[in-house]
Design brief:
248 residues; alpha/beta; Undecaprenyl pyrophosphate synthetase; six-stranded parallel β-sheet; 7 helices; globular; binds 3-methylbut-3-enyl trihydrogen diphosphate; binds magnesium ion
Length: 248
């Protein structure tokens, strides 16, 4: 999506993206297995989904499994995939009643069959949701997404359907998996890290980044309010001079 006019100050974050990190550290601190951290992470997600609408968030995108997370032990990957299925099994009716529309980005076709099936069911069942768009990033990696888009455009050019000179920011964005979403206004990373870990690299061009030491399983509505308050205090200049300086 295009870069908005400079000096624009919208205190509301329409699209919030979250890197749900810190489950393992949370479990370690409690002397529990990592799986328990992931289980608690799902509970945190449920709470944040409920908290989104009253805060006027229209799009919530959560990083649940990266293209790099396949490097984890198979047993941990299995736990994460099982939790995804359990989440979808137990929450679809609830999401639907909350007016949530569920979607997913990433190479879903490489996920276990049981996950693909539940995701398809969940997306179909919530298609009419208009209050909040919830996007799960699963087997998602931004570099791969960008390479996919570049390949599609190159193939279209090779077939003579587009001219290379026609490739613009907008056309490129339209070939990303996030084509139906506005760019994120705010990216939240719990657990004290300050990196994007291959999440929404293109889309984050002008996102405000918020990092907190709180670990994802402890992230609740009060933490979300802190992040949104920090966002409201930021001035998004989009490369222009500060509107506080009169812009001249
Ligand atoms: C995030 O928590 C969950 C996933 C990456 C799927 P982590 O498992 O990365 O937790 P830490 O970083 O080890 O604390
Ligand atoms: C990012 O967390 C991915 C998800 C939260 C799904 P990681 O724990 O995988 O990221 P790194 O390894 O610390 O960069
Ligand atoms: Mg981590």
């Amino acid at each position: 999506m295009s870069v908005p006019l400079s000096g624009e100050r919208s205190p509301i974050a329409q699209h919030v993206a979250i890197i749900m990190d810190g489950n393992g550290r949370w479990a370690k601190r409690q002397g529990l297995p990592r799986a328990e951290g992931h289980r608690r992470g799902v509970l945190a997600l449920k709470d944040i989904v409920k908290a989104a609408k009253p805060r006027q968030i229209k799009y919530l995108t959560v990083y649940a499994f990266s293209t790099e997370n396949w490097r984890r032990p198979q047993a941990e990957i299995d736990v994460l995939m099982d939790l995804l299925v359990e989440f979808l099994d137990s929450e679809i009716a609830e999401l639907r009643s909350q007016g949530v529309r569920l979607s997913a980005i990433g190479h879903l076709e490489e996920l276990p069959e049981r996950c693909q099936q539940k995701l398809a069911e969940g997306m179909a069942a919530t298609r009419q949701g208009h209050d909040l768009s919830l996007t799960l990033a699963l087997n998602y990696g931004s570099r791969r997404e960008i390479v996919d888009a570049a390949r599609q455009l190159a193939e279209a050019a090779q077939r003579g359907e587009i001219q290379p000179a026609e490739i613009s920011d907008a056309l490129f964005s339209a070939h990303l998996s996030t084509k139906d979403l506005p760019d994120p206004d705010l990216i939240i990373r719990p657990s004290g890290e300050w990196r994007l870990s291959n999440f929404l690299l293109w889309q984050a061009a002008y996102a405000e980044i918020y990092s907190t030491e709180v670990l994802w399983p402890d992230f609740d509505a009060a933490q979300l309010d802190l992040a949104l308050a920090a966002f409201a205090r930021r001035e998004r200049r989009y490369g222009a001079v500060s509107s506080r300086d009169g812009g001249s």
